[in-house]
Amino acid sequence: MNFKRVLFIVIAILLLAGCSTKEDPASDDSKPKDQAVIKNTDVKNEPSDEFPLTGIATEAGSERRAAAVMINNHPEARPQSGLSEADMVYEMLAEGDITRFLAIFQSEMPSQIGPIRSARDYYIELAKGLDCIYVCHGNSPEAKTMLDKGYIDNLNGLYYDGTLFQRSADRKAPHNSYTSFEDIEKGAKEKGYELNGAPEPYAFLTKEEAAGLQGEPALKTEVSYGSDEYDVQYEYEATEEKYKRYSNGEQTVEHKSNKPILLDNILIIEAAHQVVDDKGRRKIDLKSGGNGYLLQKGKANEVEWVSKDGRITPVKNDKEVGLIPGKTWINIIPDEPGLVGDVSF
């Protein structure tokens, strides 16, 4: 009888304990779990990354390797295709007063890029500094040596004319060679090149820093390359808060769509130029650094530029100057006469 009574008491205690557990409010251990769910929801709604050359937020990831494409700037090659989708564009002299572009694509993948022109050694150096796949159609003797020795992963239209590079029927050679980002990646896979490996990011300003920018007014700026056909004008569009670009007074737009090229940062720098042959080919010193102007939000500031691991970087008081998130155009001009003689506001 006593045994049954004890057993009854034990069972009653266990039942009471079970009821008590169910009726208790959520324990302290459950609170962090609820908070973690809220936090994860917040993170899901926030972009996971930024593109390294534009500072623009993305949820799709930003590890894609960049491609650097030589773009023709002859008047017969204008308007070009793909420039509005380039993260950065470098503009430099090739021969004589003729400039060419090195367009860097990483955040966007154009379906048509061109017209494409031949390589020069100093453009290759810039592409190498961003660890790009370098794309050209033809080459100078110095550039050929670099490409043949494998200095940089490259695709040369001389060997892919009609396959990865297509000729447009509405223009004459050498102003009619085009490719696409899809064909660049296809060629890279065929040659065993790595397709991942984004460039190191540049420094970018926050919205608050951009809103507080100071500087000299730079609503209209001209950069001279010694010829009306290649001189450049920038005009600040206050409603867009971006710069429009012009060549010889004609606005730079996309071929076919007429979409304007709109820019957030204009970096104008001077570097030593030297003519090295009877064709007028040059060597350009992209390592020694020098003076420059940085145009942002309708204002200009004097900066210096340095070659940081092969990348042209604006600095002031030995500190990297932040860019406005968006598109950047870099004009490299001869140091004689330099900024004083070739740039006007």
Automatic annotation (TrEMBL):
Residues 22-47 have a biased composition (Basic and acidic residues). The keyword Methyltransferase does not apply. InterPro entries: DUF3048_C, DUF3048_N, YerB-like_sf. Keywords: Signal. The keyword Signal applies. Gene3D superfamilies: YerB-like. This is DUF3048 domain-containing protein.
